[in-house]
Write a structure and sequence with these properties.
427 residues, 4% strand, binds (2R)-2,3-dihydroxypropanoic acid
């Protein structure tokens, strides 16, 4: 751990602070992103606790209520919250059709890390009184968001929620989505991408991807954001193993938070959801890859492309042994876990989720392994991550073979991951 690097990480968060929320990086992502916000809060927690709680509270101020698009979608937490306008990003606030909201957001969500990050923040808080007060304020909103996932994304009560958009997975262009996305029509309308103004095209998804994600965005608006219609008519419906793991872990943590604050009814409600998913996840197990994978709900097929998402199974607390798959992943790169297997035909070293290493994923995967008793694997991933921070700083993601920084520069969640996992634990 280097003090200079920790100070640089704090500077990244301060420079990306827009007053109550942190943008991921200037230009490329000028709004508040959902799963980024939770990781950013972990980083703020190491040097400014009030600001850390504010990050999560600002995010949840954009959660949809019954007054927005009806009770059915209450509890949706957008993957982007547009606290102010910016023209450096597509699709910005005017594209989603959510103008009726008090605070505009996108119409899809993102991995629900929040309850877990809130629990980790509470554990680390120096000011326990302020932390408990913040958790008390947040608890009903966390509960509403988890209920939204279970109610609208698993209406059959199967135990496995679905996503309706690749952006919802947070792992936008993962090769696991290639097959289900190929069945989505390409939009015929004109649009102008802005990401390529900031980052080289070799690191970003291609036009064929954007043509389909724009189609899916527009379809939500045409369905009036009615979750029943969206779940019935959606052209992309996937049990994303990443979301299943992250929601499972967050619901376990929500049980603990609820118990701590004396809300036994909420604890019981979430424990029942956890139990249902615990059994259901076996349907995602890939014998071939010895890890869970995602499933296309429209065809019923397992998506035969193992990615780092499935290595979150230990973090989720699933009763699945992924240690051999993690060992295999660690043998492929010196920098932790690559998002896509290097031997995959879809592997593309610099391209976003088709190869690169992401430091927050290293953290989540490693923490889960430590909790299952695989401290050796945790320590290996942490040591590789620490080395990568020293070598390449706080880029959005990293080349799995060279460790060079890729995507956006001075990236908030990368800096936050360093502060929480490397700097604070070494202090
Ligand atoms: C993007 O624009 O690449 C984002 O990941 C979408 O959330």
């Amino acid at each position: 751990m280097s003090h200079a690097l920790a100070e640089r990480a704090r500077q990244v968060l301060r420079a990306n602070d827009r007053g109550g929320y942190t943008i991921p990086t200037a230009g490329l992502y000028p709004f508040q992103w959902n799963w980024d916000a939770s990781v950013c809060a972990l980083g703020w927690m190491t040097f400014d606790e009030p600001r850390a709680w504010q990050e999560i509270e600002t995010l949840f101020s954009g959660m949809w209520t019954e007054q927005d698009y009806g009770g059915g979608s209450a509890g949706l937490l957008g993957h982007i919250t547009f606290h102010q306008d910016a023209d450096s990003y597509f699709p910005g606030p005017d594209e989603w059709g959510t103008q009726a909201l008090r605070l505009r957001t996108s119409s899809i969500s993102q991995p629900p890390l929040h309850a877990t990050m809130v629990r980790w923040m509470l554990e680390r808080a120096q000011d326990q009184g302020a932390a408990e007060a913040a958790v008390r304020r947040l608890l009903p909103r966390l509960a509403a968001h988890h209920r939204w996932w279970y109610r609208t994304r698993d209406p059959e009560g199967s135990g496995l929620v679905r996503v309706l958009h690749p952006w919802e997975t947070g792992m936008d262009n993962s090769p696991a989505w290639d097959a289900p996305l190929a069945a989505v029509p390409a939009t015929s309308r004109a649009y102008r991408r802005r990401d390529l103004d900031h980052v080289d095209a070799s690191m970003r998804p291609p036009k064929a991807f954007y043509d389909r994600v724009v189609y899916l965005m527009d379809a939500n608006r045409e369905a009036g954001f009615d979750p029943v219609r969206m779940a019935r008519e959606g052209r992309f419906q996937v049990n994303d193993v990443g979301i299943v793991c992250i929601l499972q872990r967050a619901s376990r943590d929500l049980v603990e938070l609820a118990l701590r604050l004396g809300d036994e009814a909420l604890a019981g409600e979430m424990a029942a959801q956890v139990a249902r998913t615990q059994g259901a996840v076996r349907a995602l197990w890939s014998q071939r890859w010895q890890q869970p994978v995602s499933r296309d709900l429209l065809t019923g097929a397992l998506l035969d492309e193992p990615t780092s998402a499935g290595l979150l199974a230990a973090y989720a607390g699933f009763d699945l042994d992924i240690a051999p798959a993690v060992r295999n992943a660690l043998a492929q790169t010196l920098h932790g876990v690559a998002s896509t297997r290097l031997a995959s035909a879809a592997y593309d070293a610099p391209r976003y989720w088709r190869g690169p290493v992401w430091q927050h994923m290293n953290l989540l995967i490693a923490r889960g392994l430590a909790e299952c008793g695989h401290t050796d694997l945790h320590d290996r991933i942490r040591a590789s991550s620490a080395q990568l921070f020293e070598q390449s700083g706080f880029h959005e993601y990293f080349h799995p073979e060279t460790g060079s920084g890729l995507g956006g520069k001075d990236f908030s969640w990368t800096a936050a991951t360093y502060l929480h996992w490397i700097a604070a634990e070494a202090a």
